[in-house]
Design goal:
seven-stranded mixed beta sheet, two-stranded antiparallel ribbon, 9 strands
Length: 181
Amino acid sequence: MAGSSSEKLDLVVQKIRPFPDFPTKGILFWDICPILKDPKALAAVIDLFEEHVRQKHPEVQLIVGLDARGFLFGPLLAQRLGVGFALVRKKGKLPGPTVSVAYSLEYGTAEAEIQEDAVEPGQKVLLVDDLLATGGTLYAACELMKKQQAEVLGCLVVIELKDLKGAERLKSYPVFSLVQH
C-alpha cells in the first residue's frame, strides 16, 4: 500500500470501532473487523508491522500468532518477511505432540499450547496478537517460547489498552503497538 506511515496509521485508527458494554456491562470492546473488511486497512497493518520488524528485528526467524486473532495478521506478516509462522492455541486444539503452559486469567485459569516441533531451540521469534490488555495471554505465550528455548525478540499488537498495564507484565519483552487506548 502506498502512502506514509502516518497515513497508514490514520487509516487503521479509523477502522477500529468501540462497542461499549460488550461482551459484558462495563467493558469497552475494540472491534478490528472493519480492518479485515478493508483490504487497504489490512495492508496498512501489515505494512506498519513489516516496517517495524525490518528496522528493529531483522534477525527474526519465525512469527508466532496467538489464538485466534494473531492468526489473522501473523501469516501475512510472516509471508512478507519470508519466514515461517507457528500457532499458539488454546489447549486441546492442536494435533500431535504439544507443549503447554498454564496461566491465570481475570476469571480463572487457561492453558496455551504449541506443537512440539513448531519452534526450534535458539530460534528468534516475534509474537503477534490483535490486542494487549492485561498481558496474560501474551505473557503465557512468551513463557511457552522460553520453554521451547526460543529467543523472544518482542511482541506486536494492533491495539494496546494502556490503562490495563499489560506491557508492564511483559517488561522483559519489547511490545510494539500500532494503536493505544
